[in-house]
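Changelog-linked ticket: 5,10-Methenyltetrahydrofolate example.
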Amino acid sequence: MTARILSGKEFAARIKADAKAEAEKLREETGVMPGLAVVIVGEDPASQVYVRNKHKACEELGLHNVSVEMPETTTREELFAKIDELNADPKIHGILVQLPLPKALQSAEAEVLERIDPNKDVDGFHPVNVGRLSNGAGSLVPCTPAGCIRMLELADIPMDGAKAVVIGRSNIVGKPMFNLLLQHNATVTVAHSHTKNLAEITKQADILVAAVGKPGFVTADMVKPGAAVIDVGINRIAPKKLVGDVDFDGVSEVAGAITPVPGGVGLLTVAMLMQNVVTAAKLQLKK
Ligand SMILES: Nc1nc(=O)c2c([nH]1)NC[C@@H]1CN(c3ccc(C(=O)N[C@@H](CCC(=O)O)C(=O)O)cc3)C=[N+]21
Ligand SMILES: [Mg+2]
C-alpha cells in the first residue's frame, strides 16, 4: 500500500482562501483590515524561512503586516516596551514574538508571552488562551495544531472515536494537539521521551502525530496499517535539506495518509496564522 500524500500546499490554500474572504468581509463591514506584527529579537537563521513565508502569506491575503527587528542585546524592559506599544496600536490585531528568544532573554520567555494582550496573541501561547483552549472555548489556538486539525477535517479523516497518539508534549504542539483531538472526540494518548514500549502504543493509533524533533524517529514498524501520520518535525539536517520526524519512504508504505516535510505541516502553520490574525481582529472589534 502507498499512502495518500496530504499536501500542505493544497490544504493551506483552502485555509488562506477562507481567511481572505473573512478579512475582506470584515473590511467591507467595518473599514478595518487585520494587521500582524512579528517581533524578531536577534538573528536565529532557522526562524527566517518562517518569517519570510508569513510575510508572503500576509501579502497574498492583503493583510497589514510589519516586522519589528530588535538586536540580540535587547533587554527584557525594551522588549516589554515594544510589546506594550503594539498592544496599544489599533492597526495591529496580532502580535507574534518569534521563538526561541536569544539566550539572555530565555528566562523571561513566560513573562514576554504574558505581556501580549491575550486578544492579540495569534500564537495562542498566552496562559489565558491556553486556559480557554483547555476549557473548550479557545478562539486563538496555536497555529500548528490548529492547522493539523483543519487539515484532518478537510481531508475527511475521522477523529470522532479514533485512537490518536501524539508523540511530544511541548506547549507549542503536543499539549494543544491533545486538547484539540480530545475536543473532536478522539481517544488521545500523549507519549514522550519517558514513555515505555512506545511502538506498542503508536501501533494502535489511527491518527499518529509526531512532534519530537528527531529526524526519521517514526519508522514503519511503529505505524498501524492505514493510519494517518502527521509529521510536525522540522529538522534541518543540512543547509538546504529539511526533514521531518517520520521516515517518509518507509512509513508511506504502511500508512493510509501522510504529510511530507517540507510541503506539509509548516505550510498549514502559516495558513492558520493568517486565520488567527483575522479572528484576533474580530475579537478586538467586539470589545
Ligand atoms: N512565536 C513563534 N511562533 C511560531 O509558530 C514559530 C516560532 N515562534 N518559531 C519558529 C517556529 C517554526 N515555524 C515554522 C512555520 C512554518 C514553516 C514553513 O513554512 N515551512 C515550509 C518551508 C520549509 C523550507 O522550505 O525550509 C514547509 O515545511 O514546507 C517553518 C517553520 C513556526 N514557528
Ligand atoms: Mg510537514
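Closing comment: Example verified and attached. The CA atoms of residues 20 and 62 lie 8 Å apart. The pocket of magnesium ion (ligand 2) is lined by residues 8, 231, 244, 259-261, 264-266 (CB under 6 Å).
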